[in-house]
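ARCHIVE ENTRY
Sequence with per-residue tokens
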Amino acid sequence: MKRNIVIATVAAAALITGGTATALATTGDDETAAKQSSVQVKDNDRKDDDGQGDDRDDHKGDDRDDADDAAENTAEAKAAKVTAADAIRAALAKTPGTAVSAELDEEDGGLVWGVDILKGGTWHEVEVDPGTGKVLGTWVDKDDDGDDDADAARVNSALKSASTSAEDAARAGADKGTVTSVDLDDDGTAGAWGVETTGAKGAESEWNVDLKTGKVTADRNDDHDDQADQADQADDDRDDQAEDGSDD
């Protein structure tokens, strides 16, 4: 259940350190200035082609995109010296409550941990520097749709009998790779934390961490998505072979 409203995804990036600029956090009653992260990202997107070329060129472009994504994932995971569990702990020390999600992502050119905390019936966003573990900024996160109370009630119900916290889930998921996201799966059948990890070569995986037992299992939906992608790729390869045969 990610409520991060100021986190944006950066495509294909290489990481460098530095940066001293500051920016104000978005509106909220519990607001502090959001300092820029010590871990900066530099956009290294490949130049878009002119849209011309055959399917084989498209496949080559897709392969390059996949390689770029893997490189970006690896770079970000390595740059985050502060783990998801430690980022959650730092956020809770600043803003006590219940951590509901944490995500490593890009914000204004810098890499940050965005942690959502529910305190009573109020949602708070806390940004933590993945390089230093310092809190960069905090503010009240108000949903434009006005369903904050419903979200809070759903989360409280899901966690009512939980024995595993977001921090616990992050530590459990760390055995599977570098944790880049922890998120409460509260879609009505909540029984687990959703955890995303990045492997040594940039491969992303999704896991479920049971709310009561802390047991880690592979996310079956993720496996199904991978199988569908592989099937689509196989179909495309067969089409390419058919076209090659017709050209001869």
Remarks:
- The two ends are 53 Å apart (CA to CA).
- The helical segments are 55-79, 84-94, 148-159, 166-173, 220-247.
